[in-house]
Amino acid sequence: MRMADKPRIGVLTERMTMGFGVDLVIHEQAVRLVSRGYPVTIFPAWKTEMYDNQPYRIEPLTREGDDPVQYFSPEFMHRSFEIMNQQPIDVWMIHTPPFYYWLTYLPAPVIMVEHGSPPGRYFKYRQGRALDAQTRKRQHRTFRATRPGDGIVAISEFIRSGLPPDVARSTTVIHNGADHYPIASRDAVRDWRVQLGIRPRDVVILWVGRIQPVKDPQPYKGLGELLRLAPKVRKRCRNAVIVAAGRGDGSAADLLRRAGVIPVFNVPSEAMGGLYAAADLFVNTSVWEGFNLPLVEAQYQGTPVVALNVCAHPEVVMSGYSGMLADSIDDVTESVVRIVEDERLRQILSEGARKQMQTFRWDTNVDQIEKLIEGCLRSVQTGQSPERAELKKTPRYFIEYAQYLIQQFGWRTFFRECKGWFQRRL
Questions:
Q1: Alpha carbon of 168 to those of 141, 146, 152, 156, 162: distances in Å?
Q2: Statement to judge: residues 217 and 164 lie in one domain
Q3: Considering only CA atoms, which of 98, 103, 78 is closest in space to residue 386?
Q4: Which helix (H) or strand (E) holds 343?
Q5: How many of the other CB atoms lie within 10 Å of CB of 345?
Q6: Is there a domain that residue 35 lies in?
Q7: What span, in angstroms and rounded, lies between the C-alpha atoms of 356 and 358?
Q8: Longest CA–CA separation in the chain, Å
């Protein structure tokens, strides 16, 4: 490592694109680390133009025209290291699977950021079973394989509490920030309310998430609960206007309108602050969250929130002060109705929301990340960190590849791959 300069940081993540919380977290951290003198290179499996022209560097691990590979396959790992080895890196940060499992092939220090994974019960059986197996492997095996200089970060106390006790003791909790969308101007708020057709006496209720009613990849986000809640609220509160913002298409828009919800799709990042601020109340129906960025984004704009009292929500929402936490969707409905009908209560909660977010700042987040990086580097310099494993196609490589194929796709796929391997060599 260059002694006179800040260490070079490499970030491994599944993707860099719009609409994903982890991608936004990485972006906010990378921008601030670069401003403090750290050269940062992000290595996503794939990306879109969303994060082009940034002060950090992006090196995608898949190129246009590449043969498609499974991200969990050894083949993808070999291809990736050919790209990664071209960039000198002093500290690695890992944010998503499958990159956690590359720990022993990367030189220390490696900082693994645990964003959490929803339980498999929220998905179809086969998908849920595979997701639970990945989580167990990561938390019980990979995290226990850390070396002197390696570190583990959890984005909430809730996430740390789900780790094995010995892993949790060596894990640092670093909350995400809330100030990535600047405080909206009055003009931005007015423009949004005009665009939505809001009358002076209307109370706007906002919901934000990915809106994919058919084959929903994240059923735990609570889209179905929103569709059941909306008609009940509108029936009891005639001045309630419910808006759902996120990514969606025409069929999703029709479904929302039938439930009495106004769809607003694909809002640019620079306009999100104004949309949050234009709402009088933000409601979240998610049943599982490792942190929940929309809750802090809304409160930062002074919009009170209502959500379920689960997971990390008590860490980011002070119930009765910056919003309301409820024990069931029926209780969420009651809390929404109460706040809609009480203008004075909305004003009190709005002020509390702004104060609650004063400590959720990205500069604070990166202060803690920087401190952890420095501590990890000191541990490497004073400890006996083992050499990284040599990456080559040994018999162990083929055994692990066979296990991967069988576990993920079954014996039929394994035998088909073996047949193809022999045919290519004959």
A1: 13, 13, 9, 12, 8
A2: no
A3: 103
A4: helix 343-356
A5: 14
A6: yes
A7: 6
A8: 79
Name the residue with tokens 């709005």: 350
Query: Which residues make beta-bridge pairs with 93?
Result: 11, 111
Verify that 166 and 209 share a domain, yes or no: no
Does 275 share its domain with 209? yes
- Domain CATH number, residue 327: 3.40.50.2000
- DSSP characters for 150-182? -EEEESSHHHHHTS-HHHHHTEEE-PPPSTTSP
Taking Cα atoms as reference points, which of 362, 315, 323 lies closest to residue 339?
A: 323
Residue 403 lies in a domain: no
Residue of 216, 220, 226, 223 lying closest to 121 (CA atoms): 220
In a domain, 380, yes or no: yes
* Burial 278-303, CB ≥16 within 10 A → b, else e: bbbbbbbbbbbbbbbbbbbbbbbbbb
Domain of 287, in residue numbers: 186-359
Do 216 and 316 lie in a common domain? Answer: yes
pLDDT in the model for residue 387: 46
Q: Do 217 and 289 reside in the same domain of the chain?
A: yes
Local structure of residue 198 (DSSP, 8 states): -
Is 407 among the domain residues? Answer: no
pTM score of the predicted model: 0.87
Mean pLDDT (the chain, rounded): 91
Task: For residue 342, report the phi and psi dihedrals to the nearest 5 degrees.
Answer: -125, 95
Render pLDDT for 266-315 as a digit per residue (tens, 0 to 9): 999 999 999 999 999 999 999 999 999 999 999 999 999 999 999 999 99
Contact yes or no for 298/206 (Cβ under 8 A): yes
pLDDT, greater one: 212 or 281: 281
In the sheet that holds 171-173, the strands lie side by side as 57-58, 40-47, 9-16, 91-94, 110-114, 151-154, 171-173
Tokens of 130: 């595979």
Q: From 95, 304, 202, select the one nearest 193 (Cα to Cα).
A: 202
